[in-house]
Amino acid sequence: MTAVVTAEWNKLRTVRSTYFVAVFVLVLAALGIATVQMLTDAFLAGDAEGRRLYDPADLTIVVLPFAQLTIAVLGTLAVTSEFHTGTIRPTLQATPQRGRLFAGKALAIAAVATMVGAVAFTGMVLASWFIAGDKPEPIKPWPSLGDGLLVAGACTLGVTVAALVAYGLGTALRSTAATLVTVTGLL
Q1: To the nearest 10°, the Cα dihedral for 43, 46, 48, 51?
Q2: What b/e string do you get for 14-25 counting C-beta neighbours within 10 Å, with b at 16 or more?
Q3: By CB neighbour count within 10 A (0-12 exposed, 13-18 middle, 19+ buried), where does 56 fall?
Q4: Secondary structure (3-state) at 56
Q5: 98: how many CB neighbours lie within 10 A of its CB?
Q6: CA distances from 100 to 78, 105, 169 (A)
Q7: Angle at 100 between CA 159 and CA 162, to 5 degrees
């Protein structure tokens, strides 16, 4: 099984789309951090009456759906591109046990999605905490940094599940377009 996961990891590591997806999720997190900074600055510049109207500076709820959709593209392309180009045939010849092959591919996709999600959301939570964590209610994003890290873990789990759902749908539908439309509808 290790050889199958390694082979699938190498496939994901050597295609440009994996890096584009990872960079885009990190850009989303950076935009979320910049938005937290702008919200906090506006909060501090406002009067007491206006401050009551602010929501907490937890932008993970805004960034999460976009990150899920982006990671779902990775899960989709990891399998549908092989069906589209016909490279699934040599893959199946090298690993004739389909269950083993698809489990190995799922583990590799889950590993990439988890790494990207953990870096993006943990970085976003830490930056948000340092920007707005010591500010008064209602801009303070979480009661404690530990609560924020739980949010980061939940978001990481959310992007991993999105990647695996897209992978499963891509395996069943064998079409990039159909899979992306279905995943977008689900999200």
Answers
A1: -30
A2: eeeebeebbebb
A3: middle
A4: coil
A5: 10
A6: 16, 9, 18
A7: 10
Cβ atoms of 169 and 76 closer than 8 Å: yes
Residue 113 CB neighbours (<10 A): 30
Does 90 sit behind a cis peptide bond, omega within 30 degrees of 0 on the bond before it? no
- Cα of first residue to Cα of last residue in the chain, in angstroms, is 31
∠ Cα 32 38 40 (to 5°): 100
Tens digits of per-residue pLDDT, 27-74? 999 999 999 999 999 888 888 888 888 888 888 889 999 999 999 999
Assess contact for 105 and 79: CB atoms under 8 A.
yes
* pTM for this predicted structure: 0.89
Give the number of residues written for the chain: 187
